[in-house]
């Protein structure tokens, strides 16, 4: 099986980016180990503090954040990092060529029930003019990403990553400690009969999403004339992984409750990296009002509505918005 390094070289990835990715993955391997220790290492449960988004931090959120932040800061390849678990951007090395945004442990409420969780990351070039702790350098649209991916801490530890030459899936071979390509150039099936949405929020959605989901649920008796199935892991990494592997549509749509919070998921370290992976696998990624990767960010923790997945299904969903 092909090694990660070989795949990245074949994809024309510059050496310094390969070294950065390998450094980041070293952190993820440590997170994978810490996660697997579970109750034995006393890492389950919550801390007594909230993050900048007002979410109670899990102990593993904090551990994963420190591991990534420290390894990346010390690497020399990174000028600054931004994390879901940090209020502000953290300046790293003044000569670092890259910016890294990450969600250290996505779906972390699943830690206490031994269910799917993962790390999501997005890498961009660091502008030369920027001071290392300048947050404005991060406010680039997702089209500027040079690499993005996630590491899924599931029954096996898997990596999905793109550097703009297709999306590849890798599996961590714990016998030698490296990621091996287990599916190159993933293609998301264009059609699907699976959807993923937290329907307990249905009454708060905009009209187009209400009608779309009503028609999915009406199944073969409704206008779609086929039955759909619903799946919800409650960790974006888990749901997006399933969609990449066998198709589907994943949505966390606009929610009318608070116009200042137009969606749940964060643009920089959740929506953009997943959008890059999905588009590189032939799928689509939209907010309902435009391509996710073209959203011009205004702040590092900004939230956006997301619709991601099988091309034909996302297009069908978008017809309800037009
Ligand atoms: O990071 C936010 C997140 O945990 C995603 O991973 C997941 O898709 C979503 O929130 C789950 O939301 P809910 O709590 O509504 O099921
Ligand atoms: Mn998350």
Automatic annotation (TrEMBL):
Claim: Signal is one of the keywords in the record: no
GO biological process: fructose 1,6-bisphosphate metabolic process; fructose 6-phosphate metabolic process; fructose metabolic process; gluconeogenesis; sucrose biosynthetic process
Pathway(s) this gene product operates in, as recorded in its UniProt entry: Carbohydrate biosynthesis
Binding site for Mg(2+) 1: 84, 103, 105
Catalyzed reactions: beta-D-fructose 1,6-bisphosphate + H2O = beta-D-fructose 6-phosphate + phosphate
EC code(s) of this entry: 3.1.3.11
Major localisation: cytoplasm
Residue intervals of the Fructose-1-6-bisphosphatase class I N-terminal domain: 6-183
Signal peptide positions (record): none
Molecular function GO terms recorded: fructose 1,6-bisphosphate 1-phosphatase activity; magnesium ion binding
Required cofactor names: Mg(2+)
Binding sites annotated in the UniProt record for substrate: 106-109, 198, 264
UniProt-listed Pfam families: FBPase (PF00316), FBPase_C (PF18913)
Keywords assigned: Carbohydrate metabolism, Cytoplasm, Hydrolase, Magnesium, Metal-binding
HAMAP family to which the protein is assigned, alphabetical: FBPase_class1
Name of this chain's protein: Fructose-1,6-bisphosphatase class 1
Organism annotation: Neptunicella marina
């Amino acid at each position: 099986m092909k090694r990660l390094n070989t795949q990245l070289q074949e994809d024309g990835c510059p050496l310094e980016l390969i070294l950065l990715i390998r450094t980041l993955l070293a952190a993820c391997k440590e997170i994978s180990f810490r996660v697997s220790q579970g109750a034995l290492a006393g890492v389950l449960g919550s801390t007594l503090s909230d993050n900048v988004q007002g979410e109670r931090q899990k102990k593993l959120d904090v551990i994963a954040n420190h591991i990534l932040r420290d390894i990346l800061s010390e690497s020399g390849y990174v000028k600054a990092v931004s994390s879901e678990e940090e209020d502000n951007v953290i300046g790293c090395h003044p000569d670092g060529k890259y910016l890294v945004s990450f969600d250290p442990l996505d779906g972390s409420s699943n830690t206490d029930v031994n269910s799917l969780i993962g790390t999501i990351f997005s890498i961009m070039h660091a502008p030369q003019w920027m001071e290392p702790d300048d947050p404005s350098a991060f406010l680039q649209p997702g089209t500027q990403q040079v690499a993005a991916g996630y590491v899924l801490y599931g029954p096996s530890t898997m990596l999905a990553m793109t550097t703009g030459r297709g999306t590849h899936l890798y599996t961590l071979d714990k016998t030698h400690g490296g990621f091996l390509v287990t599916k190159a150039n993933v293609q998301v099936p264009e059609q699907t009969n699976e959807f993923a949405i937290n329907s307990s929020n249905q009454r708060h959605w905009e009209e187009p999403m209400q009608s779309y989901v009503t028609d999915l649920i009406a199944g073969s008796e409704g206008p779609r004339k086929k039955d759909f199935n619903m799946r919800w892991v409650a960790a974006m990494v888990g749901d997006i992984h399933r969609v990449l592997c066998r198709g589907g549509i994943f949505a966390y749509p606009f929610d009318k409750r608070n116009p200042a919070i137009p969606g749940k998921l964060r643009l920089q370290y959740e929506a953009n990296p997943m959008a890059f992976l999905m588009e590189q696998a032939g799928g689509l990624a939209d907010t309902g009002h435009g391509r996710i990767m073209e959203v011009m960010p205004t702040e590092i923790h900004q939230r956006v509505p997301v619709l991601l997945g099988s091309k034909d299904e996302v297009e069908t969903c978008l017809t309800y918005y037009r």
